[in-house]
């Protein structure tokens, strides 16, 4: 069963959605703003944000020497 959480826009978000939003925010250079009303969602957001700081965004182009 997938846990969902109401976000500020009234739509439901899964734990994976919050995790991905955290990664997306750090890759976009946004400040960390976890949800305040749901500790589980906040934890998933924080985890995603931290992982995003470690890994490169999928759109970043790597250049290899020839």
Automatic annotation (TrEMBL):
It comes from the Bacteria. This is Uncharacterized protein. It comes from Nostoc punctiforme (strain ATCC 29133 / PCC 73102).
């Amino acid at each position: 069963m997938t846990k969902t959480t109401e976000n500020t826009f009234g739509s439901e978000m899964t734990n994976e959605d919050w995790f991905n939003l955290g990664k997306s925010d750090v890759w976009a250079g946004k400040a960390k703003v976890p949800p305040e009303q749901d500790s589980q969602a906040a934890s998933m957001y924080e985890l995603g944000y931290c992982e995003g700081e470690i890994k490169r965004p999928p759109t970043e182009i790597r250049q290899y020497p020839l």
